[in-house]
Design brief:
about 425 residues, single chain, alpha/beta, 8-stranded parallel sheet, 2 domains, TIM Barrel, binds zinc ion, 6-stranded mixed sheet, about 25% strand
């Protein structure tokens, strides 16, 4: 490369021990899924205005990158760089806790017994309704800090504990406050169809009509939410009701997501393909037929190994079969107060390996690039590649294989988001 076509940079992550790149990344519907990773030794990464402009061996930096007087050098000695984790499925915004319910479940109490003792989503709904926006912000910010501490640079957060329009809009405002206050990327999902409120169970069709005709237009007007999610399950929303809700969202520009096949196979996967959902999540019970339907559909199958572990399921999502079928499997935390308290991205990496038998490379790609696709940001984030945002997690580790291996331990050193250091500068 001659001097004239040097790229200019304002931030250089210099002298890294290694940086993990994806040689053949999935690039969206109709493209091939690559599961290979490559650890570039003695790497440097340069960015300009928050976007990666060059990656290579540190020895080649000077002949490829134009160093300005104000170019910032970040010393990467002894550090491993991986793409910042993307947690594409969370219910991070809630109030209170359900530790009693956790203990009851461990002791073998049934779902109905727990419900009778005041457990379940509606328990959290009451807690959320009783708190102010500032109180909800405070409770959630603590968890957001913990997610970032584990290497998360983008997180999706759902509403769905308001379950009336007033409180769903309150949740959206709190997520907006978090967006304002935090440096990480927050993606908002409206999930008014998370559960049917107790006083509407005999009248769920009119509840669905209310969501479609009143809530969705009001939510769209706030411009806060990108996605519209629905819990398609027995005792929640039927396929027909889910279709109504997702199509109503589409009319207002809200992209569909779906909680499918968690307990029963009702046809949530078919619906995901039909409406062009960005992702179908859980998929614990999805069989060969469902996997076949997902192939080539562009729907990102998102599996949540923390949840099946937390619920002590004997069965986990068939991630291996999905990978063998050529699907761009994503993993996420599903952090929520009832069915999954796993939160850290490093912990989800371990769960993907232990419970889903995914390799370290597969887990990393599923928790970064494919999870980025699951929030429709697959071309902007999720990989260390020229043109993408400079979102990087720096670990004091020799290899990315140690992230999942050191289960429950955290070796994060710093986060870089949009070419800015979050903790060290
Ligand atoms: Zn969920």
């Amino acid at each position: 490369m001659t001097k004239e076509n040097k790229v200019s940079a304002d931030f250089i992550l210099h002298n890294l021990d290694s940086a993990v790149v994806y040689p053949n990344p999935y690039r969206g519907k109709g493209t091939k899924v690559g599961w290979e990773t490559k650890e570039l030794k003695h790497a440097s990464i340069a960015s300009k205005n928050g976007k990666i402009v060059w990656i290579g061996n540190s020895a080649d930096l000077n002949e490829n990158v134009k160093i300005e007087s104000d170019t910032y050098f970040y010393n990467g000695e002894g550090l491993l760089a991986v793409p910042g984790f993307v947690d594409s499925h969370t219910h991070l915004l809630y109030a209170g806790n359900r530790a009693d319910e956790f203990e009851m479940r461990v002791q073998g109490k049934t779902y109905l017994e727990i419900l009778a003792a005041g457990g379940g989503i509606l328990n959290t709904t009451n807690a959320v309704r009783n708190l102010s926006e500032e109180e909800l912000f405070a409770e959630t910010s603590h968890r957001l800090d913990m997610a970032m501490d584990s290497g998360v640079t983008t997180i999706e957060i759902k509403t769905g504990y308001g379950l009336d329009l007033k409180n769903e809009l309150k949740m959206l405002r709190v997520i907006d406050m978090l967006k304002e206050e935090y440096p990480l990327r927050i993606v908002t999902t409206f999930m008014g169809a998370h559960a049917v409120p107790a006083d509407r169970v005999n009248d769920s069709d009119s509840f669905v009509d209310e969501i479609c005709q009143e809530w969705i237009p009001a939510v769209a007007e706030t411009k806060s939410a990108v996605f519209n999610d629905v819990f398609t399950e027995k005792k929640a929303f039927s396929v027909e009701q889910s279709r109504k809700i997702l199509n109503a969202g589409l009319k207002y520009g809200l992209k569909p997501k779906i909680h499918a096949d968690e307990v029963n196979v009702l046809g949530g996967v078919d619906l995901a393909v039909e409406v062009g959902a960005v992702s179908a999540d859980h998929l614990l019970m999805t069989g060969d037929e469902g996997i076949k339907k997902l192939v080539g559909s562009g729907v990102i199958p998102t599996v949540l190994p923390g949840t099946s572990t937390y619920l002590m399921e004997s069965h986990h999502a068939p991630a291996r079969k999905m990978i063998e079928a050529g699907l761009p499997v994503a993993i996420a935390s599903d952090h929520n107060p009832g069915s999954c308290q796993f939160l850290g991205a490093n912990m989800i990496q371990s769960m993907a390996m232990l419970q889903l038998r995914m390799s370290a490379s597969e887990s990393l790609i599923a928790g970064t690039l494919h999870a980025a696709h699951a929030v429709d940001m697959g071309n902007e984030i999720g990989a260390i590649e020229v043109g993408r945002n400079m979102d990087i997690a720096l670990f004091e580790l020799d290899s990315f294989k140690q992230i999942g291996y050191h289960i429950g331990q955290n070796y994060l050193y710093d986060l870089i988001i949009g070419g800015e250091s979050i903790y060290k500068d």
